[in-house]
Q: What sequence folds into this?
């Protein structure tokens, strides 16, 4: 059988590079797999189950993908939230998607606190990937958790929101696939092959912020095809023109 899909690569080729950050350091498939597993266990320990939502407000950094992979294997809806939104705008999305957990970066902690104060119908557990005074570190959720795959694995889904230029942002909540994560990964990896991206070839450059719609699902097929991806981490400095660049693949 063809080797394809993140979890297959993580098991069979754990030393293969998965992420190359803008500073040149890398994370292997094996390391990323273990981190995502610990986070998945941590989320389940908080009572999250298939169909629940986890929101993330991070720049292009490994923690973003750890959350995405954790959600993708325990049936959670992943809702990326733009780091440039105001507190009330973030609160609207959190209420609408009914997030049970919200993971933020240290550079948006002020907006996150404002959003938490403006919530109406939801009360997500607020965690920080990094140092944010007064916010529980994400490491507290993962410390002591096993790095083995979680039980009851099922594919999750990404829930994206419109920009809200004609009103409040609206979420697109697709049904969960109802298949194992490996099966979902093979389907998305197949999309990459339509563009000539064969398993393991090249490096995928993600130039747009992962919290915006353009990179979804474009970074996922090359990644699940064994292709390392390199992110430019603009964080909160992305402007309107730079956020429209999208993701591009580059052959070596």
A:
């Amino acid at each position: 059988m063809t080797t394809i899909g993140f979890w297959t690569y993580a098991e069979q080729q754990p030393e293969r590079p998965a992420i190359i950050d803008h500073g040149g350091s890398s994370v292997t498939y094996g390391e990323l797999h273990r981190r995502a597993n610990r986070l998945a266990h941590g989320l389940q320990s908080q009572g999250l189950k298939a169909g629940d939502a986890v929101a993330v407000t991070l720049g292009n950094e490994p923690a973003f993908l750890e959350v995405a992979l954790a959600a993708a294997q325990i049936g959670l809806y992943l809702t990326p939230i733009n780091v440039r939104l105001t507190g009330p705008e973030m609160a609207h999305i959190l209420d609408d998607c009914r997030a049970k957990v919200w993971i933020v970066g240290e550079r948006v902690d002020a907006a996150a606190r404002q959003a938490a104060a403006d919530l109406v119908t939801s009360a997500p557990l607020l965690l920080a990937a990094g140092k944010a005074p007064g916010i529980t570190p994400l490491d507290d959720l993962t410390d002591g958790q096993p790095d083995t795959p979680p039980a009851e694995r099922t594919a999750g889904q990404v829930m994206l929101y419109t920009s809200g230029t004609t009103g409040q942002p609206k979420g697109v909540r697709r049904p969960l696939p109802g298949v194992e994560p490996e099966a979902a990964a093979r389907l998305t990896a197949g999309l990459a092959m339509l563009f000539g991206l064969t398993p393991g070839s090249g490096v995928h450059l993600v130039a747009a912020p992962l919290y915006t719609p353009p990179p979804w699902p474009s970074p996922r097929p090359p990644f699940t095809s064994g292709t390392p991806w390199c992110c430019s981490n603009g964080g909160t400095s992305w402007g309107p023109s730079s956020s429209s660049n999208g993701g591009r693949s580059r052959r070596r």
Remarks:
- The chain has eight helices and 13 strands.
- The chain has one domain: 6-235.
- Confidence is low (pLDDT under 50) at residues 235-252.
- The CA atoms of residues 57 and 191 lie 27 Å apart.
